[in-house]
Amino acid sequence: MATRGFTGRRRETDPRLPPGQYDTGRDWPVLTAEVTPNLRPETWTMSVDGLVERPSTWTWDEMHALPQSRYEGDIHCVTTWSMLGTSFEGVSVDLLLEAAGVRPEAAFVLATSTTGYTTNLPLADVTGGKAWVAWSHEGRPLTPDHGGPVRLLVPHLYFWKSAKWVTRLTLLDHDVQGFWERNGYHDRGDPWTEQRYQGD
């Protein structure tokens, strides 16, 4: 499914744009492989499990009681659009992993959405201030089409890695491909080296 913004404005020369990307301006295209779920914050939970010392689950209110942080920067979609100078608010993934106590053998994360969608990430790509569980965009609650009430945000990778409607992070000692990775997308998805598809 795609909406306005998919074709966007003309490509510009801008050092913030990775190769092959164009600036979509303020338009944020809606792209999804699934039917958008109707989720209520009061029934949503976020879990961290797998190779952790303390498997943990937070409710909506518990998540909002944690120290919050903000991402300000750019996002990039594998379909070639980028949104520059945008912002998201939520909780750093570092905070959740610290609370759960990541075991030394953990090296990968499998993010799972309430729809069953999954995507895989090296642990190094969601730690060190690189990833968030986000519930607002530019000061407004995330809409369901954009992953609301809560999505994963991993802005330095192509945006399919930022799983919509996220509900679980599972720590693993080996890589397990997610939905798009099993269907030909790159396992990591770095926009700056154009890791769009397997073999790139």
Q: Can you tell me about this structure?
A:
With 200 residues, this protein is mainly beta. Helix content is 9%, strand content 30%. It contains 3 helices and 11 strands, in the order βββαββαββββββα. It is globular, with a radius of gyration of 16 Å. Residues 1-11 have low confidence and may be disordered.
Write the layout of secondary structure elements.
Elements: E1 22-23, E2 45-50, E3 56-59, H1 60-65, E4 69-76, E5 81-92, H2 93-100, E6 108-113, E7 118-122, E8 132-137, E9 140-141, E10 151-153, E11 166-172, H3 179-182
**Percentage of residues in strands:** 25-35%
CATH topology: Sulfite Oxidase, Chain A, domain 2
Second rung of CATH, namely the architecture: Alpha-Beta Complex
Task: Measure the end-to-end span.
Answer: 25 Å
Class computed from helices, strands and strand pairing: mainly beta
The first-level CATH class is given as: Alpha Beta
Largest sheet: 6 strands, mixed
Protein name: DMSO/TMAO reductase YedYZ, molybdopterin-dependent catalytic subunit
Region (Disordered): 1-26
Domain Oxidoreductase molybdopterin-binding: 36-180
